[in-house]
Amino acid sequence: MIINSLGTLVRKLLLMKPRVVFVLGGPGAGKGTQCVNIVKKYGYTHLSAGDLLRAERSKEGTKYGELIDSYIKEGNIVPVEITIDLIKRAMDETMAEDATRNKFLIDGFPRNTDNLDGWNKKMDNDADVKFVLFFDCSNEICIERCLERGKVSGRTDDNIKSLQKRIQTYMQSTKPIIEQYEKEGKVRRVDGAKSVDEVFDEVQKIFDAEN
Ligand code: UP5
Ligand code: MG
Description:
The chain is α/β, with parallel strands linked by helices. 61% of the residues lie in helices and 14% in strands. The chain contains nine helices and five strands, in the order αβαβαααβαβααβα.
């Protein structure tokens, strides 16, 4: 009897362990756009690390506002202690509201070894990273899209000066993380240069095969 209920509890806990898909790609590669589509079709919760940082920056009384602001403008990567706390809090809040909502798209993270080490230290035992969805898109197209968006986005980093730094950071720090996951067979690559619908067609094939 006791063993039976213990078994049920263990099964429940295992079922509820967060399942994570990391979503990576250059600035403007289409991560956010496709995450919205994935949420609609596959019931994930979308957590954009960049959005979480921008929200934290704008909060009244936050001690990290200026720091986050300058890192984002310079296209640098915010220290992981800040980012991981925001991600963890958002995951905990989501699951506290509804324990069955355990599928997360973590968009724009991990971007460097500091991020990856921070994740492994704080989250590795508490969440399963299923795979990395990688939107592969040329730097030229990425820059063009962000500049176009910059006309209306109000983002402090959608200008050519910040974009050159964002691309440099992506090439130097994030690409090696994608390559590392590639060696582990965890990367699902999509051609991000195609139209939004064509990209989503590819994305669906991946999620249909994984689910
Ligand atoms: N668009 C999208 N898909 C298209 C398509 N297939 N065809 C034509 N147009 C397409 O798309 C960008 C624009 O392109 C939009 O106008 C869209 O309509 C169009 P979007 O889906 O927003 O692309 P995304 O890849 O999400 O671009 P984003 O600019 O958000 O990527 P970044 O990775 O640069 O930005 P993020 O918000 O993740 O990070 C910003 C900064 O925060 C970083 O530079 C860094 O300073 C900091 N940060 C950290 O320090 N740590 C973190 O963990 C995360 C962020
Ligand atoms: Mg985005």
